[in-house]
Structure formats: structure tokens, C-alpha cells
Amino acid sequence: MRIEVEDLVLRYGDVTALDGITLTLEEGKIYGLLGRNGSGKTSLLSVLAAFRKPTAGRVRIDGQPVFENGRVTSRISLIRDVGETVNIGTGEEALSYAEALRPNWDGEYARSLAELFKIDLKKSVKNMSKGQRSAMGIIVGLASRAPLTMFDEAYLGLDAPARQVFYDQVLADYLAHPRTIIMSTHLIDEVSGLFEEVVIIHKGRVLAHEEKDELLAKGTSVTGPAAAVDAFTAGMTVLGSRSLGPTKSVTVYGELDDARRRKAAESGLELGPVDLQDLFIHLTAEDGAAR
Amino acid sequence: MKFRILLANCLFALLVWAAFWVLVTLITVGLGLTGRLTQSAWEVAAQLPRWYALFFGVSLIHEYLPLYVAHGRTRRQFGVEGALTLILFAPFLAALLVISYQLESVLYGLAGWPHVLERAHMFTEPTQVPLVFTEYLIEALAWSTAGAFMGAAFYRFRGGGLLSIPVGVLLIAFAHSAMGVEPWGPFLLAWLRVLSRVVFDLPDSPLMPLLGTVGVLVVGLLLTWAIIRDMPLRNQAS
Fold it and tell me: How far apart are CA A284 and CA A289, in angstroms?
């Protein structure tokens, strides 16, 4: 499903959670939604899923407004840590409600996922462990096969092997049933392999929205003698720097053309890639934001 | 599946009722054998189904509305199904109470105990099935509607939901008055003398129970809709 967001504002009383977000997400991709705590990720996803009415601005999915539009919302699934899709009786009952309410529900797949996550569906969901409740949300989110599927920190409480099962299933099911998937996460290194595009929001605004590879190409570490590094990076957007004796390493943001790369080589500087998590940390650092 | 909530709640209520019936019967027999049974035990026990109806209304909004919205239903779609569920669940509860009184009547008859009512009701004998059904139908409708309204207010406004309690109490008390029974007694607040001064001066008409119930239902559901029509789902578990 294609998502168009224009000048989106969401306020909770005096607090502005989303401050004029404009964004277009094409259908059929896996998006990573990154942001620090309180940046507005959950608020954005909640508006996209019609969990909340925006204060101002416009949200259209496949060209139609979302809030209180059943034709659109029936094709959207947002799984949150709150657990509103599963906190109802036993695991079996939670799945039966999903089956009754979700037009594309795949019950067989849901049960295979329950086995994979070792969930006892006869148990009350509220009595399950945090990780098991998260797994229940993931089961409902994946087996709903909604054309727009969103996971908001859906892995909370899952241990590392279970998280890997989740990532593998997201990818496998996406390949088998292509759809638009948005994943909000703090475990960037773990999940970033899935992302095709990345949206970073910071203080309620879009800080970056690019193809993951293009975004990564914009981050470069420049390492070498301190004086040479300072001379090379003068005038560039410096996200962060570290020094060890006479050696300095600086992370810069912005594409380096061939001429710049040649100049770096002539100056004896080493250019290296920056991983997504490092780039995210630098971009959203309080004194380095909004570059 | 349509009316998934109704079916699930009818089944659950049936199980709760069966357990409660056993408990009430055991207490009744105990009191009867010790010579302390002076009235219909279900007249007293009927207090619990009232509160059950209230919390059913609360759960409709607190549990099921977030579930339905999170599964892609609109608030309007849920509002329609929720209202129909509430309206159809009430006769089910009333029927369970009718059965309870009927079984009790058999027990009292066999044991030779006095099957006496101590409070004013629409019925004068526990065996008057249509009137017993009507009274508890009205009660179930009023209590569950008030529960839905208060549940919506607490879900949306959290502590501010406290302000909905007097309104909910008034809805229930009005329905009780429309039936011609004590309006405040069921709240266990009869000791609060100020309440005894608040009376609903309703016309003495046979249509009054029907009109009063419809009025309570319409007003209660409209008030609930006013709260939930654009209600956000909470970001954090309550």
C-alpha cells in the first residue's frame, strides 16, 4: 500500500509528538523506522493505522484517507507492545478473533508460527511471559497478511534466537506474500539487513528518508593523521570525531565524489563505511541533529 | 463471524452462572436447614448479575474496542456491533435469572420453605416469568449501558472518568424508577440519606418501564458514542 503523509501534526495536550511530517512510502518494500525514544515513531505508526486521529495534516493510503475508513483500515495491521490484538483470553481465543476480523488471515501459518515460537495457545495471554506475549503479537501480525503490516518494537522481551526467528519469518513471508512492511526498532544492527528504505525521525520531524544503501553511502569515516583529517573534512558535515594519539577518526555525512576520494588517498587518509546504527547515533545525537 | 463478542460472552456467562447457581443453592440449603431462610435467596443473589452486566459494559469498551480497532474495524463499525451485542446480551442474562428463580421455586416447594420477596419488584411472585424476565432485562440493559459509558470515560480520560460515575448511577437509578422499584438500593448506598431525597417523579403508566428503558439505552449509548467516536487507542498498556 502506498502511503502519503503531508504536514502531519499530532499533539498530546501541550506536547507536539509529530511536527509537520511529510513523507511518501511506495508500496511493496520493507521500511525501517528509526528514532530515539520519544521521537514520534509510535505516534506516526498509530496515525497510519488509524489508532489516533491526527491533530492536523493529511494521511492517505492508496489515495484514501485512513481515519474511520474501514475499506482502508481492514488492510492495515499495526502490532505494538501494548498488545491490544492479543490480550483477550487464551492464545486460541486471540487467534480466533484475528481469524474473524482479518480478511487475509492464514490460520495454518499462525499455528506453525506458534509452534516455531513454542507458544502454548491454551494459556491465557495475560499470563504469558513478556516474550511470549510479543511472539503472540508477531504471530497475529504476520498471519494477518495485511497489505500494510507494521511492527512497533514488536520484539520486546524476545530472546536473541526468537528474534532471529522473527526476522527470518518476516523476510520469508514478505518474499512469499509481498506487501508493505514498516518496522520500528532500536535494535538497528540486528534488523537493518531487512530494510530497503530507512526513515529516521527526530523530535517529530523526518530527519532522513532514503534507500538504505544510499543513506549508508552518505556516511564515511575518515581516518588518518589529525591535521590531514581536519584539513580534509573542513567545510564538510562532521557527525562525530574520535582521537587516539596523533590519529583521528571523523565521521562525515554527505556523498564523496571521485575527486574527494582521490584527494583523501593522496593525503594518506583511509575512508571507510559507517554502519546504520553508527550513522543513526550520529545523526540523532542532541548536538549533531538536524544536519 | 458476526457477534463473536456476544457468543463468547454468553458462553462465559453461562459458565459463571452455573458456578454461581451451585454456590447460591448451597447457601440456600444451608440457611434452610438451620431455619434462617426467610426470603428468596435469588432476590439477594441477583445483586451479582447486575454488577456482572455493568462490567460486561465496561469490558466492551476497555477490551473489545481496542481489539477491534487494532484489527482494522472502525469505531463506527464497532459501535454498531457493540450496541447490538449489549442489547442482545441483556435478555440472555435476564433468562438466566428467570431460570434461577424457577429452579429456586422448585427447591423451596420441595423443602416447604417460604418463597417470599422482601423488596418491591415488577413481579409479586418469583414464578411470574414474563415480569421477572422484564425486570431483569431492564436492569441488565441499564447496568450494561452505564458500564459501557463509564468504561469509555475511564479508557479515554483515565482519572477524569470518575466524573462519569454519577451519570452512570443516574442512568441506572432512572431505569429502576421507571420500573417502579427502589432506585438507589442496588448501589448499596441506601444509607446515604441525601439520595433518598432525590426522586424521579415519573408518570404512573404501564408504558413507563418501556419508555424509561429505551430512554436510558438511547441516552447512554449516545453518550458512549460521543466519547469513542474519535477515541485514540492508548499507547501504553493500562
Answer: 5
